[in-house]
Design brief:
The chain is an alpha/beta fold. It is about 50% helix and about 15% strand. The chain has a six-stranded mixed beta sheet. Strands 1-3-2-4-5 form a five-stranded mixed beta sheet, with helices on both faces. The longest helix is centred in the C-terminal third of the chain and has 54 residues.
């Protein structure tokens, strides 16, 4: 009897299971199609910045390639913030369609990201355009200049919630007032916190042996530095400023701005990633030379990956790598006279001596090499989106073909004119020859020869 009941119940159970599966699939599909980014218009814009105390707005154009690349990262950032910080909203507005917002909010290009705090716009966001950086930027805008932590667990949680590559300054045995000035000045470039309860475990974990101490960590570079004072005036600010970047920063379009803003001369190590063993040794030497030369900011770049960047420094396929140049961040740099100075095993010593000679004004300054007109044109063309590049190539080919056809037609018409001129002259000479023959019978042979090309009758 139980068997038959179970057989009768089986279709019902199967139907319920199928319904549940379809419900899960439908909901997940609906969730994927759902956007966490508010789509604004000039009519809804004022109400949105009034309703939401913190609103990050993207001013975009549908045809903009950079906007298209930003779209999935922007959506991902909106979803992350919706899950962790629901009071923060992300929005977008088609500024190309609604041109009235361009002048109102000083939009110079696409995409432009601006954060509105209680309806008041912040300066344009110029950081990395990935979801983690966007989330970190918004969180930092809402966070206090200095956080107060009371335990090791809170320290761990604070470090975990920092989702970008910014340095973290932790004050052990310090009050908030001590770090107030540098924390306010550099709040957009670093995180600051003070730890109230300093345990032995924290001292071991962060590698300091007394308090008060200020420890800076760079999570991505796995680096830290300790400062024991004095905790006042220019010395404290100098330590913070010199440690906003790792010992050696990878040169990229994103870090270039920070390196220039630092103000110190940039020691740029140039190597080729095609030779990993040599590059690894060179990077170790560059990093080892950095702590003793804090008057400089150190960076590195792979010439094989970014040849256009290193070319103005005189680096091409014939240059012996690795090498080091000292760049002022503008239009001047200095290079070592010995091209093989930095390939030896004592590269660290060579780097240090090079920097000392630079400070002693023993190294000449060189002007950056300006790209030629053709190089600039090539960079512009290859920097265009694919569609625009294809259209540009098509127009150039069309113009060249047009010129070629004009030349062919011109040449053809000239040939035809020349032939007609020859025939005209032949006819004329033939007629003259006939006349001469009739007047002077003493020269029939000459007349006959001249008339043969003219078609004498």
């Amino acid at each position: 009897m139980g068997f038959w009941n179970s057989r009768k119940a089986f279709p019902t159970v199967l139907l319920q299971l199928l319904l549940q599966v379809w419900t899960i699939i439908f909901c997940s599909a609906a969730d994927k199609s759902r956007s966490y980014v508010l789509d604004l218009t000039p009519d809804t814009f004022p109400a949105a910045i009034t309703k939401h105390s913190m609103l990050l707005v993207e001013f975009y154009a549908p045809w903009c390639g950079h906007c298209k690349r930003l779209a999935p990262e922007y959506e991902r950032a909106a979803q992350l913030l919706a899950e962790t910080s629901p009071y923060v909203k992300l929005a977008k507005i088609d500024a190309d369609k609604h041109k009235s917002v361009l002048s109102k909010y000083d939009i110079q290009g696409f995409p432009t990201l601006r954060l509105f705090l209680n309806g008041v716009p912040e300066p344009e966001y110029e950081g990395s355009r990935n979801s983690d950086a966007l989330v970190s930027y918004v969180r930092r805008a809402t966070a206090p200049d200095i956080s107060s932590l009371s335990s090791e667990a809170e320290v761990d949680s604070f470090q975990k919630n920092v989702s970008d590559s910014s340095p973290i300054f932790l004050g052990f045995g310090l009050t908030e007032s001590v770090l107030k000035e540098p924390a306010t000045k550099f709040r957009k470039k670093a995180w600051f916190a003070v730890v109230q309860d300093v345990s032995d475990d924290l001292m071991v974990k962060f590698d300091f042996d007394k308090t008060p101490a200020l420890v800076v960590t760079h999570p991505e570079a796995d680096e830290r530095a300790v400062y024991y004072g004095p905790f006042r005036g220019a010395d404290l600010e100098q330590f913070v400023q010199q440690n906003l970047l790792p010992l050696v920063t990878k040169m990229s379009s994103e870090t270039l701005k920070h390196l220039r803003e630092d103000g110190r001369p940039i020691v740029l190590g140039i190597y080729s990633g095609r030779h990993p063993e040599s590059a690894s040794h060179f990077m170790k030497m560059l990093k080892a030379a950095s702590p003793a030369n804090r008057d400089f900011v150190f960076s590195h770049v792979d010439a094989a990956i970014w040849p256009a960047f290193v070319k103005p420094f005189g680096v091409d396929k014939r240059t012996i790598l690795p090498t080091v140049v000292i760049w002022n961040g503008l239009a001047e740099y200095s290079a070592h006279e010995d091209e093989e100075a930095f390939i030896a095993r004592d590269a660290q010593t060579q780097i240090t001596k090079f920097l000392q000679d630079f400070k002693a004004n023993k190294i000449k300054r060189i002007k950056l090499k300006e790209p030629s007109f053709l190089e600039k044109a090539k960079e512009i063309i290859w920097g265009l989106p694919t569609v625009y590049m294809l259209v540009t190539i098509f127009i150039l080919v069309w113009l060249l073909q047009g010129c070629a056809w004009k030349e062919i037609i011109r040449d053809g018409s000239m040939d035809e004119q020349q032939q007609r001129e020859r025939l005209r002259r032949s006819d004329l000479e033939g007629d003259l020859g006939s006349d001469r023959g009739s007047r002077d019978s003493a020269e029939p042979l000459v007349v006959s020869r001249k008339g043969s090309c003219g078609g004498c009758k």
